Amino acid sequence: MSEIPEPLPRIARFEKLGFGMFIHWGLYSQLGAGEWVMNQRRIPSSDYNKLVEGFTAVDFDADAIARTAKSAGMRYIVLTTRHHDGFSLYDTRGLSTFDSLHSPAARDLVGEFAEACRKEEVVPFFYHTTLDWQWDSDFHAHPAGCDRFEAYLEYLNASVEVLCRNYGPIGGLWFDGNWAYPEADWREDRLYATIRRHQPEALIINNTGLSARGALGHPEIDSTTFEQGLPTAPDRRGQPKYLAGEMCQTMNAHWGIGENDFRYLSIGQIIENLCLSRKVGANYLLNVGPTANGAIPDYESAALRRVGDWLRPNAEIIYQGEPVAGTSSNGRDFLLRRGDDYYYFAFDLGMEGSEHVTSGDGVFGPRTYTGLPRKFSTVRWLDNEECVPVDCEAVPGAMTFKPTFFPYGTHRVVRVGRLMP
Q1: Whether the Cβ atoms of residue 202 and residue 172 lie closer than 8 Å to each other
Q2: Of 64, 91, 94, 352, whose CB count within 10 A is highest?
Q3: Are 89 and 136 contacting, i.e. CB atoms less than 8 angstroms apart?
Q4: Domains in the chain, start-ordered, CATH in brackets?
Q5: What does the alpha-carbon distance between residue 228 and residue 202 come to, in Å, rounded to a whole number?
Q6: How many CB atoms lie within 10 A of CB 385?
Q7: Do residues 404 and 388 touch, judged by C-beta distance below 8 A?
Q8: What pTM was estimated for this model as a whole?
């Protein structure tokens, strides 16, 4: 059997972060119609760039954002330092005047962000676009061999070097946009060498997009991406490098704020997606789109606080747990392991109570899990310490038990229990 490679220390650390906040914020936020509004409405740069005149960032409070992430149990934050519209939230040190220092905000917002993250012991990551619509019209037909494209790549590399040199140690760089020109030579060797020179322990991620979830990439890449879709279990046998996995998802249908977008994830959906990501060892990166002036909207803030309430009693296994091979009769139930301890994640439980006040939702009856490493006697729920007996005798390597429903007045969406000997 082919061996599974050992993860590099930076990749092992990343996997233990588990849950992160994605922040999409920029000039597009002033229009309240998503981060692709410049492209979708075909707004010329000459018109779009006038939005800088109203970019005040008056409500951007990096300390408050870091505290919100921490209270939600998010251990890292990925901020869009520059998105596809080409506007930078950092001091580009003379590379461009299209940045926050040359706006009414007159602030290095990335610097504030990095400092606030460290203060709250949240790891800062920098998103940086590789696709830039300020340049794109000059080479979009044939980027390969185009002098203008080569000049752009010089600008991109220099921009990333600014981020690597001026904001202290960071968790990683998160790139997005190579999918726009898949046949072009993006000079990834040079770009990633720049990062390794200044930030040797930084994770490097390059989003493969909606159509290529989980796809492998350049050898320096440290994690696969699953945009807007649940991650799948990787087969690492015989691979030259151990790669992490990460699912990134919007809280509604847009990455940047959409003022008329009402299709939000529920708190329950967020909890389930976090658990199902961890089932296969992947991180869950959940996006918020701040307002035009930089505040996290009320719905997102409230939802994240409630997710944090759910996560607290389950935090140790969510962050530290490792996937366990096995199958459940319920389909979504799974185990995670931490050292010699095993934890059962139960989905689709109902709530006990009178038929006059409960809806009857939930999957009734016993559940069987096949693929146990050893025998257990009970499941002890982490939320109330109740123990439920399990039968490990009927089928070798399997356990059967009838999980109790939630007591009336309680519904934790996914219930976690420790398997006891």
Answers
A1: yes
A2: 91
A3: no
A4: 9-320 (3.20.20.80), 324-420 (2.60.40)
A5: 24
A6: 9
A7: yes
A8: 0.96
